Amino acid sequence: MSLKQQAIKGSDIDERLAALVTNSNAVRAIAAAVEGTLGPKGLDTMLVDKYGEVVITNDGVTILTTMEANHPAAKMLINIAKAQQAEIGDGTTTATVMAGALVSEGVDQVVKGVPVTRIIEGIRAGVTKAVQLIQEKASLVGGMDDPVLRQVALIAGREHGDIADLVVEAARMTGAEKLKDPSFKLSDTITSEEGAENEVFLGVIINKQRLSKHMPKEITNAKILVVDDALEPEEIEDEALATEAGFARYQELQEQFNSNLKKITELGVKAIIVDRGVDSYAEEVLTDAGIMVVQRVSNKELLKAAEHTGARPIKRTGLRKETANLTKYLGKAKKIYEDEKLEHIRILGGKGKPMATVLVGAATEEVVGERERIAKDAAASVQASVKGGVVPGGGAIELALAREVEKVRESVRGMAVYGIDCVVEALKRPFSQIVANAGFNPLEKIGDVVAAQLKEGRESLALDCDSGDVADMFELGVVDPSMVKLHALKAAGEIAEAILRIDTIIKKKEEAVPKTRADHFEESEF
Question: Which residues form the catalytic set?
Answer without folding.
Answer: 59, 92-93, 377
